[in-house]
Amino acid sequence: MWEYPRPPKIRQPLISGVDTANYPTAYDEPLSGKGIARALASGVVKRDELFIQSNFTPLSAHDKTKIPFNLDQKMEDQIKESIAQTFEDLGVDSLDAFILHAPFENEDDNVAAWKIFETYVSDKFRHLGVSNFSLAQLQKVYSNALVKPVIVQNRFQKKTVYDHEVRKFCKEHGITYQSFAMLKNNPEILESDVVARVADKLSVLNGTTKVERMQKDLQMTTKVLGDGEQLEALQPELAEWSKLLLDLAGSVKIALAEQLWP
């Protein structure tokens, strides 16, 4: 759950049972904090039932109207000021995860920023992660980190060959891969037969702001993940899904090769 513009729309998913919230400083953390505060105050959820994560966004990737730090400071102080602002905006004293929202233009700065993040771990941050990172950028941070990244949030799209190599690295190193824009950016996947069949089998609902529909979505997710027979019944679709991605990735690689060597 992320980028909801108004406190009621933060509180509604929490009422429905959504327990993970991602609030980058590039979006609207103050309103997010108000939504969380209302949900906690009303007893809808307890803090330890939520997984809250936020991000630091380098200047090059920032909305220039929402920069939460003084540009005249050195990078370390920019990061510390941004983190302090995040805690003030969200109204919490710790985060379950903190993400480097985008790589710096100078890749050495990714490691330098990571070292600053590490000083907050255990006291203020439980976990660290990265977003919008290539495999090479991820590997460099990972190899230099004392506290290893446990989350990678990347856009899932054709031009990165569906992040095949990044996902492989994550699997090998116990990193949770959180994809976003998976269907929005991939009409060839959204329009595939396998997605249509799974949606039909599970009665998938479109995105919504209505509490009752959120509850139905969560009930179905819980049912599927906790139902061995249902998971077994989906094995053909899972196999077809893997093949679809491999086929699509292969076509992308061929197209890229043709561009390089016409």
From TrEMBL:
InterPro entries (UniProt xref): AKR, Aldo/ket_reductase_CS, NAD(P)_OxRdtase_dom_sf, NADP_OxRdtase_dom
Domain of life the protein comes from: Eukaryota
RNA-binding in keyword set: no
UniProt-listed Pfam families: Aldo_ket_red
Sorted UniProt keywords: Oxidoreductase
Matches recorded under Gene3D superfamilies: NADP-dependent oxidoreductase domain
One MF annotation (Gene Ontology) recorded for this entry: oxidoreductase activity
Span of domain NADP-dependent oxidoreductase: 18-182
PANTHER family (UniProt xref): ALDO/KETO REDUCTASE (PTHR11732)
Name the record gives this protein: Aldo/keto reductase
